[in-house]
């Protein structure tokens, strides 16, 4: 038996019968074939940043940490092909050294490239979409042990689905991303009242390439962030100011505040008011990954729903009213981001402009009542939950929420008829 695997948040644990750490595509394909012969289900785990049991298995657990690094850079096509186990933080740093960058990314970069894309990880953007939407080609090992490649021109049906494949179609071994010359972003972080953010949301979205905000429940306060391309010069946050904002306040002091709130829930509203006023306005200019991403050392659990963008203001007002009239004590801010429509079969932004509402609770704090109440509001607005974050939806719901859901399940039937890559989570969200 393998050792117990746990995810980052501590919400999921599983004990695989066998583990494999392949160092090549050939070794990985051989491990998949042997697992099929031995009747073992197969799952791959990256950094464990999914809050759902999407990577859990009692069969073969593949750890891709030896399959890392850049395979090739094609400057004529402006693409980079990278091994699937490469952490995003290593990819971002390597691209920057080459004078290149992804167009958009999420707010953390601990995940592997395959884990991030397979679950639909995204940042915020008016015109630029999720990390998966920047994929130009994929290589994966299918259930029969064969290595398959796909792109818009080569096996386009597989390409449409496998960019956010949930680990249901095969084991991703390499990804080709579109890249562009390294550019600068200017970030403007500024406190703002929630009422003003909601009233001006459409304008803030339209006027900025990347807009997001964090609302602190039990208060009317938000912290907003606007990222836009800059001609320079670079003006990074100073070392002292950066440490105070990103480490002392956003991580150290916030950790203390969360621990205090968990022990004394009655104090949470007062703590929220203090937390919402701790960060002051700042502006800085730097390379993209240093602006898009931030360290996240306080552990939490999370649920996130994608809504039609035009529905998000009403939904947030409903969440605020629900919190105000309930006995809930919410110590973590609510995060709101946006994305343009894309053409990926099971992308949360598939076919529609979207806004994301993410709710969090400090690890070890009861979260189900809060998440259930928020989920009720999100589903009433045709919400689609993030595949890697806590939710209670099933295949019946997704068949209605995704117009192309049947395309994905039909492809899965063809590629994995014996459900080699099945686990209880996939059974729930995709059906048998």
Description:
Strand 6 (70-74) and strand 7 (79-83) form a beta hairpin. Strands 16-13-15-14-18-19-17-20 form an eight-stranded antiparallel beta sheet. By secondary structure, it is α+β, with helices and mostly antiparallel strands. Helix 10 packs antiparallel against helix 11. 32% of the residues lie in helices and 24% in strands. It is globular, with a radius of gyration of 21 Å.
List the helices and strands and how they pair.
Layout: E1 5-6, E2 13-14, E3 18-20, H1 25-37, E4 42-44, E5 60-62, E6 70-74, E7 79-83, H2 88-97, E8 100-101, H3 113-118, E9 135-141, E10 147-150, H4 156-162, E11 171-178, E12 180-181, E13 184-193, H5 194-199, H6 201-207, E14 210-215, E15 221-230, H7 239-263, H8 268-276, E16 282-286, H9 288-292, E17 300-308, H10 312-325, E18 334-339, E19 354-362, H11 368-380, E20 384-385, H12 395-401, H13 405-415, H14 424-430
Parallel strand pairs: 3-5, 4-5
Antiparallel strand pairs: 1-2, 6-7, 7-11, 8-12, 9-10, 9-11, 13-15, 13-16, 14-15, 14-18, 17-19, 17-20, 18-19
Helix pairs in contact: 10-11, 12-14
């Amino acid at each position: 038996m393998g050792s117990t695997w746990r995810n980052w948040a501590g919400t999921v644990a599983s004990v695989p019968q066998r583990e494999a750490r392949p160092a090549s595509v050939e070794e990985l394909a051989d491990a998949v074939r042997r697992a099929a012969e031995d009747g073992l289900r197969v799952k791959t785990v990256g950094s464990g940043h999914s809050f759902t049991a999407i990577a859990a298995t009692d069969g073969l657990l593949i750890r891709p940490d030896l399959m890392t690094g850049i395979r090739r850079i094609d400057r004529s096509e402006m693409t980079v092909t990278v091994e699937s186990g490469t952490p995003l933080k290593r990819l971002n740093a390597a691209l920057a050294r080459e004078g290149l960058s992804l167009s958009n990314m999420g707010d953390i970069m601990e995940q592997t490239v395959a884990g991030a894309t397979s679950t639909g990880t995204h940042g915020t953007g008016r015109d630029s979409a999720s990390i998966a939407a920047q994929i130009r080609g994929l290589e994966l090992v299918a259930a029969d042990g064969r290595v398959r490649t796909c792109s818009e021109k080569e096996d386009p049906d597989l390409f449409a689905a496998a960019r956010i494949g949930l680990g249901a179609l095969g084991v991703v071994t390499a990804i080709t991303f579109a890249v562009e010359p390294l550019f600068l972003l200017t970030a403007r972080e500024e406190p703002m009242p929630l009422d003003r953010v909601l009233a001006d949301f459409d304008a803030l979205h339209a006027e900025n390439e990347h807009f997001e905000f964090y609302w602190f429940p039990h208060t009317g306060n938000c912290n907003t962030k606007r990222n836009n391309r800059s001609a320079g010069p670079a003006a990074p946050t100073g070392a002292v100011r950066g440490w105070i904002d990103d480490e002392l306040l956003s991580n150290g002091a916030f950790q203390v505040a969360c621990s205090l709130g968990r022990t004394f829930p009655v104090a949470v509203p007062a703590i929220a008011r203090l937390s919402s006023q701790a960060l002051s306005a700042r502006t800085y200019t730097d390379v993209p990954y240093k602006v898009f991403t931030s360290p996240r050392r306080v552990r939490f659990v999370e649920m996130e729903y994608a809504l039609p963008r035009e529905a998000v203001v009403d939904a947030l007002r409903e969440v605020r009213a629900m919190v105000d009239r309930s006995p809930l004590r919410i110590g973590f801010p609510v995060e709101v981001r946006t994305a343009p429509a894309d053409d990926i079969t099971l992308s949360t932004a598939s076919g529609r402009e979207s806004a994301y509402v993410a709710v969090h609770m400090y690890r070890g704090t009861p979260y189900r009542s809060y998440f259930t109440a928020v989920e009720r509001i999100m589903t009433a607005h045709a919400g689609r939950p993030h595949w890697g974050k806590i939710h209670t939806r099933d295949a019946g719901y997704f068949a209605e929420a995704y117009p192309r859901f049947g395309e994905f399940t039909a492809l899965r039937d063809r590629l994995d008829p014996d459900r080699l890559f099945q686990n209880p989570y996939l059974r729930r969200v995709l059906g048998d």
